[in-house]
Design a protein that fits this description.
Keywords: Oxidoreductase. Helices cover about 45% and strands about 15% of the residues. It is an alpha/beta fold.
């Protein structure tokens, strides 16, 4: 059976009453992303997130490290494991990186980090890639490191449209994972369609890159908001899902929800237990509380805050 046929069949099957169970399964252990300015709008993370939810802190160029550390400390004080971003092209040198790490560890006990190239075209200093950050040795005592993944390709790394350099980098990171105690995983850019994700994850497996995948998904949001972020973040072919939606007047006024892609991934994983997508990671483009509320409504026990159990 081809991939398209499988997805069509599995999506139809999920409409026969299996959807709640499938959604709960794939939402179990989800993570979510915040920025200091968006975190300030949340009165209590304990009231909206399940206990133990990993919270990434996105580092946008120009954000003072003090704001990042303050957000990390607040989340840690509320009992959440914190994973700040370390964007290579934003960090000037080894001394600055060491200072960031010292502040995160001293103030918030951070032991996890997402290492990525970062969105700048021109590096601010001596770092250009996550591999260079790893090679400093400054993350040697971290318990968990995540690196970026791009299911629909990354023309910043492979301008010719291939995946040669991306695969080379992922092989290096997989080899690193075998000689370190740190738990490594791939956190991906968000997509809107399951087929490219499934093909990419299976390609990694064929190449021997067996790092767990934490699939990035956009949370519920207005279509205009998603289109804006998708274009600025370089989302690839799966953006056609939004473009088709924009042509449907009946759907244009309704917020996008990630139900379809989640059900397709959950169906595929149930039938292929070795599938590399281990968890999902949410980009709350429509707001943190709106995203958390949607998960609570659709994820059963897996999505409920501790206080609601």
């Amino acid at each position: 059976m081809g991939l398209f046929s499988f997805l069509t069949k599995s999506t139809d099957a999920s409409k026969e009453g299996d959807a709640p169970r499938l959604l709960e399964n794939i939402l179990r252990g989800y993570s979510i992303e915040v920025m200091p300015r968006t975190a300030e709008k949340v009165e209590s993370f304990r009231d909206i997130l399940p206990a133990g939810t990993r919270v990434y802190i996105a580092h946008i160029d120009g954000t003072p490290i003090e704001d990042m550390v303050r957000t990390a400390r607040r989340l840690a004080d509320e009992g959440f494991p914190v994973m700040p971003h370390f964007p290579a092209r934003v960090i000037k040198n080894r001394a600055e990186l060491a200072n960031w790490i010292a502040q995160y560890q001293g103030e918030a006990g951070v032991k996890q980090g997402l290492l990525l190239g970062g969105g700048l075209n021109t590096p601010a200093g001596e770092f250009d890639s996550s591999i260079q950050l790893i090679e400093t040795g400054l993350f040697n005592d971290f318990e968990r490191l995540h690196v970026a993944g791009h299911p629909e390709g990354n023309r910043d790394i492979d301008p010719d449209g291939s995946d040669r350099l991306v695969m080379q980098a992922l092989r290096w990171k997989r080899a690193f994972s075998q000689r370190t105690d740190a738990k490594l995983a791939i956190t991906t850019q968000f997509c809107f369609e399951a087929a490219p994700v499934i093909s990419w994850a299976n390609r990694l497996a064929e190449e021997g890159i067996d790092l767990p995948i934490h699939m990035g998904l956009a949370g519920p949001a207005k279509l205009q908001t998603l289109m804006k972020y998708a274009m600025s973040c370089g989302v690839g072919p799966s953006m056609r899902v939004l473009q088709r939606r924009a042509k449907d007047v009946s759907k244009l006024i309704m917020p996008y929800e990630p139900t379809d892609i989640l059900l397709e991934l959950a169906n595929y994983k149930e039938r292929n237990p070795g599938f590399g997508v281990e968890q999902v990671h949410f980009f709350p483009l429509g707001g943190i509380k709106a995203n958390a509320d949607w998960i609570s409504e659709n994820g059963g026990v897996s999505g409920r805050p501790a206080l609601a159990n």
